[in-house]
Amino acid sequence: MSVFQHQTLACPSCGEPVPFEVVHSVNADRRSDLRDAILDGTFQAQPCPSCKEEFRLDPQLNYLHIGAHQWIAAHPLDRIGEWEDIESKDQALFDRGYGAGAPATARAIGEGMIVRVVFGWAALREKLLLVEHGLDDVELELMKIAILQSSGKVEDGELRLLDVVEDTLALAWIDPKTGADISTMRAPRAVYDEIVADHDEWQPLREQLSAGAFVDMQRLLIPTA
Question: How is residue 223 annotated by DSSP?
Fold first, then answer.
């Protein structure tokens, strides 16, 4: 089930107390509206009654969608430097709930489940969007790397998938603080398909990206402790 907790938070703009329903767990099979809110960017965002400025909580939740075979642990973006330790703990959490340490009924649910760890709303939204369009996240990260290698252009932000329209993938550099688009780009679906079909040149990176639940090109860039 989806788990909510009523809290009073200080508005980041004016400091006034704001009643807030903090979500710790999302069951998308029962609450598809919460999944839709993550996709449209309104999830865990609301205006302050005093100053009217809208603010959004950082993600700190588990997301389950049995129908899409997804189990995702989402964390604040500023904790991405801890990815190795967090990945290990979240994998253990999944194993206790749906893996070898779980009851038979829960293990049956966990079979075939894709376990992922993400940091920030843009990363969580991207994982949901990928499933919707039948894309693989490892291959998408390889495509991002290919785009960066060919363009040589790197913005100060995160490169994320925004949408898939017919045979085109729309991506954008996202400002990690505001979530706003810094710049956008489009890539033919054929670029993604070529990488999927290439079982040799991309295989070493493919294995590195898929070595754990944190499937993101940042895995290759952020040094581990």
Answer: P
Asked whether the beta carbons of 205 and 147 are under 8 A apart, the reply is no
- What tokens were used for 181? 């688009």
Q: Is the overall model pTM greater than 0.85, yes or no?
A: yes
d(CA 17, CA 14): 9
Distances (CA, A) of 7 to 14, 43, 60: 17, 16, 14
Q: Cα(169)–Cα(190) distance, rounded to whole angstroms?
A: 10
End-to-end CA distance of the chain: 35
Q: Taking the chain (225 residues) in consecutive chunks of 10 residues, what is each chunk's mean pLDDT? A: 88 94 96 96 95 95 97 96 97 95 93 96 97 96 93 81 94 86 92 93 95 96 74
Answer whether 144's CB lies under 8 Å from 217's CB: yes
- Residues 35 and 31: their CA atoms lie apart, in Å, by 7
Q: How many helices (H) and strands (E) does the chain have?
A: 8, 10
Which whole-number Å values give the CA distances from 15 to 11, 91, 100, 113, in the listed order? 5, 37, 46, 41
